[in-house]
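testing teh design pipeline on a random one, pls ignore if ur not involved
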């Protein structure tokens, strides 16, 4: 993400507000795993919680499935919260470079002044309503990853495994996200039979392997 002009910032907020009347949201953040081949060196670092080799990719999207930020550099064993905490995006919020608006994330992250997560044990009707609206709005990022993988099967587990070294795989992931955004800008539909959104409504000591993908701002 970057420092947006007031009109662009308001458009982001309005897009998320239109989903479920959740105000002041400028992005939804989540991670996805992209399967890669087994490695001869540091192989254990790439085994994720589902017991296959992968890269842990963090993305931030808007309400239209478009990615605003992508971090593709961490091995599959990296914890999601660690990836965000060590990103340029986190620095921008903590330093006040981005001072207006919130990100939404699930309960796998700690609550921050700029990062809203669900109430763990809702006890009031207000808590329950907050969680319901939070979930509906945050689902935009899950659907964004679904559309991305439907469009580019090379990064989806249904298509197998990326058979390159981790750095090249990181570059491929960033490239397909850029292409995905271009497709959205130009209203290019998904290939027939690849609509993953059909059931979801409309529209500490970690090692990294990427070298240029630390919070890449997606410009298209």
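output:
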């Amino acid at each position: 993400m970057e420092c947006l002009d007031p009109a662009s910032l308001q458009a982001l907020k309005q897009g998320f507000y239109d989903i479920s009347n959740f105000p002041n949201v400028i992005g939804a953040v989540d991670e996805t795993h992209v399967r890669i081949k087994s490695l001869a060196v540091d192989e254990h670092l790439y085994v994720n919680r589902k017991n296959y080799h992968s890269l842990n990719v963090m993305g931030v999207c808007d309400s239209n499935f478009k990615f605003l930020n992508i971090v593709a550099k961490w091995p599959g064993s990296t914890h999601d919260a660690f990836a965000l905490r060590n990103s340029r995006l986190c620095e921008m919020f903590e330093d006040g470079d981005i001072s207006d608006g919130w990100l939404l994330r699930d309960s796998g992250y700690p609550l921050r002044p700029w990062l809203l997560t669900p109430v763990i044990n809702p006890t009031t009707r207000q808590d329950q309503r907050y969680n319901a609206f939070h979930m509906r709005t945050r689902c935009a990022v899950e659907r964004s990853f679904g559309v991305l993988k439907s469009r580019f099967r090379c990064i989806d587990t249904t298509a197998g495994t990326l058979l390159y070294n981790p750095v090249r795989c990181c570059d491929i992931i960033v490239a397909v996200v850029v292409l995905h955004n271009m497709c959205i800008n130009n209203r290019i539909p998904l290939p027939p039979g690849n609509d993953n959104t059909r059931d979801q409504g409309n529209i500490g000591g970690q090692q990294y392997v990427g070298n240029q993908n630390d919070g890449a701002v997606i410009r298209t």
